[in-house]
Amino acid sequence: MRLTDHQIAAIRILAHQLAGTQSRVRVFGSRIDDTKQGGDLDLMLELPEPVDNPAFLAAQLAAKVSRLMNGRKVDVLLSAPNLMRLPIHDVAFKEGVIL
């Protein structure tokens, strides 16, 4: 996975600050392939409880992680009981790595 230990720890802390300590973050997409270079960072934030304002939460996490990653583009996908599950969720659950 192309993230440093410091970045992984910081992403976990940010997720817990924004979404609670029961939340989990998965990295999926090109960042889990050590043979590739560049690319954005794809994250899935897993929430055990329904989320009231999913777009705001995803945007907050994306902005904070982007700052941490020196402006790199960050895409955040949410998984929560009250949100529709899409095919991209299946990819993230199957191929993603929990931080």
Q: Could you name the key traits of this structure?
A:
alpha+beta, 99 residues, Beta Polymerase, domain 2, 4-stranded mixed beta sheet, single chain
Domain module count: 1
Helical amount: 25-40%
Q: Distance between the terminal alpha carbons, to the nearest Å?
A: 10 Å
Give the SSE order as H and E letters. Answer: HEEHEHE
Any idea what the CATH architecture is? 2-Layer Sandwich
- According to CATH, what is the class? Alpha Beta
Could you walk me through the main structural features you see in this protein, from its secondary elements to its overall organization?
This protein is α+β, with helices and mostly antiparallel strands and 99 residues long. It has a single domain, classed as Beta Polymerase, domain 2. Helix content is 39%, strand content 19%. The chain has helices at residues 5-19, 54-68, 87-95, and strands at 24-28, 41-46, 74-79, 97-98. Strands 3-2-1-4 form a 4-stranded mixed sheet, with helices on both faces. Helix 2 links the parallel strand 2 (41-46) and strand 3. Helix 1 (5-19) packs antiparallel against helix 2. It starts with a helix and ends with a strand. The mean pLDDT is 93.
Please render the helix and strand layout as text.
Elements: H1 5-19, E1 24-28, E2 41-46, H2 54-68, E3 74-79, H3 87-95, E4 97-98
Parallel strand pairs: 2-3
Antiparallel strand pairs: 1-2, 1-4
Task: Kindly summarize this structure in a few lines.
This protein is an alpha+beta fold and 99 residues long.
